[in-house]
């Protein structure tokens, strides 16, 4: 039996980084992008390798309590590979793979394709590292590594005013929130004398009374930094602009993978570094307020939109609110117990399902942009009879996002709300259910436009882009299969979430 | 395994038809839909369940129970099986789906493969609703039925189809949510670790319920009963929750109306029987008087509304409200004939209302109008269709030797003898008066449209209907007569399944 070195546990992240470098190498050999298939193929293979590693490690118990050795810590605890990190890495890999498959068609006839794919790969690497970050310093670096390529990707359509404007807005708010985040870290360091999450936790528990205020403001500012990455209130307002202006595959990438990455590091930092019982850092109320405000604001704003992409952007904010329930109702009960991970695990499972359905929905928008049918709900009228397969897939995404039963989104929301009720926060679940019911209104508008409304004029669809079709259909199949196949997902998520607090 | 085979095959058939070319979709769908009919008849012939599926001492037929996943400490299973209450409804669902598909050949002239695919998709989910015995599984099928129905109304419906479809969807979806919350409130405070309906039913009656939200166990039970009753009452529909029904029926294409009246409404009464009246009999008997008032008001008010309509389809739609009122009255009686008769009425009304909607549809295909004042003397031109329509109408009025008579007779006798409903004879007498109104509006409408000199306000050539239009009518009429002459085809197994409910409901 071969004994692997510890750093091999970083394979999912390394695979993405190496793929990014290989893409740059290909670009230097063939700078004219004359082989788009090769570029897309390399990117997809890289993400699949990453997914394969993450899946294999999850299944074989690497870094997990059940059947494994427990969390593997690397580089003097700066990084840690545990079940949660692997779970999120699998989510990023799936989303990135879908985005790369779809980009093949989207990028046709455009310049700088190799740069596009390698930026996506580096951003994904940053996300994969975010999931493993075990110190505030690595969390910050990884967050920047994920963010900087994203700014460039949003501005990828550089002759399009909307794209550039979106990128600038995204960048400015990103820079501001990075500053807030860094300042928060420095305050936490000032109070505790450490950046390692475990040391921060023990220092906070035994904190001198005089430093409580400093630590509390630090925690608050760190939360603000994560709010930017997860597109939650109060740092959410870049999201509609960025998602609308960016190329649709990048919108999918940002709203699914990047958001999940924000949650990965948010969950880890708050559950391991900031113990609830320490003086002045009772953050549960904070996240309860943020969850309620975020989901309500996202939903109501989504209901008033006229363009599908913008509606999806606001719905993405709403879903950030649902995912925040995972922290807002986190009981921090007996360490290692299954109940402890129940609601957090449900939140993680929701992010996985969301990765499929939301990516799929944005990719359908990419398909519509490719066909040039227009952006509003009315422009989608009659697509159902012209592109039945993609429209069926979009119908699946919409119903699943709304949480209607026969799809994956039903179970993930259900577990989330049931977990909240179980933890004693039935009012949080109630707000979630009401929001979820209301969301059916604007999701069903898309379905109605696709199938029921008659098209305004005659129009022809320009061909069927294979890559986009494959990605959309694959996402739909994933969304459907997550209903019968939800058992392993939720069990894995809950057990790795329970293992988060040793 | 046969239940899985039936559901799986029907889903697969839906997929195949969806991908088939429009020209063959109708014929293909009808051919494929015959297999579930054969399968359900085979189930009927091999049926060996005893007692009630949810109560002690009951044994299921064709049972499968496989764990699916565990949620917050509760086990969710793939748990299906049938007893004497569900089997007749399964046969009804398969037979009526096939015939509805056949009746759709003429009126559906666009996007056929989608239409017939959705019909089969709906059938598969209906089979799931009537066989699932795990709450989650059941709820998934229950909600999944709405989706195809929404599209059937919204795409192939009449002029106000979008309004009707969205109204249908919103009404029934909100009702489902209220019911869902009611049931969850029960289960979360109950001493069980599964969503299996039998386990929940047993635990509820053994007193394993603890209070919650500041309510005592009894108050919680009552609140949950009210939430579930409200949720199902919208589906049935019970007056005053019926307003979505006429819109949906009038706008829906005829085959969808047939499924809506014939099978979808029965989901509501089936769920009422399974959940409210079997799981919480103490609350049901305590408030039997109130429920009986709802039932009788539905019967009389629905019939009066039907009397006031000029649109043939609206008449049949409102008369469904009236007929479903009888079902509620029978259920709350807690007597063998009452509950058994109510279950039998679900099947009988499914057949007869399906027959009526189809017959009206066939006339509409030819005349392009459904207004009573626009035509008369149709009997002259369409003797077969009109003959069957008249026979069906008499079935509605409770002509002896037809299924409607057997069902209503059972219900009235059962309700009259009920020891649960206060002043039961009075309620029964008032409800029976509903029959008189039914006879009134049906005879009136038929006299004006079908008989007398021929006159038609629209410019269409009236020809005899095709065989594939009249064949489903004939089959339904034969089924109605067969069940009227020999109710024991279903009534024996229904009695077997409802008897255990009476013991817990305090009825005789």
Automatic annotation (TrEMBL), chain A:
The chain crosses the membrane at residues 6-26, 38-59, 79-104, 116-133, 139-158, 170-191, 211-238, 250-271, 283-304, 311-330, 342-368, 389-412, 424-443, 468-487. It is found in: Membrane. One of its GO terms (biological process) is ATP synthesis coupled electron transport. One of its GO terms (cellular component) is membrane. It is a multi-pass membrane protein. This is NADH dehydrogenase, subunit N (Ubiquinone). Residues 133-439 form the NADH:quinone oxidoreductase/Mrp antiporter transmembrane domain. The lineage of its organism: Archaea, Methanobacteriati, Methanobacteriota, Stenosarchaea group, Halobacteria. Keywords: Membrane, Transmembrane, Transmembrane helix, Ubiquinone. InterPro entries: NADH-Q_OxRdtase_suN/2, ND/Mrp_TM. The keyword Transmembrane applies. It comes from the Archaea. Pfam families: Proton_antipo_M. NCBIfam families: NDH_I_N (TIGR01770). It comes from Candidatus Halobonum tyrrellensis G22.
Automatic annotation (TrEMBL), chain B:
GO terms for molecular function: NADH dehydrogenase (ubiquinone) activity; NADH dehydrogenase activity; ubiquinone binding. Residues 132-426 form the NADH:quinone oxidoreductase/Mrp antiporter transmembrane domain. It is a multi-pass membrane protein. The chain crosses the membrane at residues 85-108, 139-156, 168-189, 222-244, 256-275, 287-309, 315-334, 346-366, 386-411, 423-444, 471-491. It is found in: Membrane. One of its GO terms (cellular component) is membrane. Keywords: Membrane, Transmembrane, Transmembrane helix. Signal peptide: none annotated. NCBIfam families: NDH_I_M (TIGR01972). Belongs to the complex I subunit 4 family. This is Proton-translocating NADH-quinone oxidoreductase subunit M. It comes from Candidatus Halobonum tyrrellensis G22.
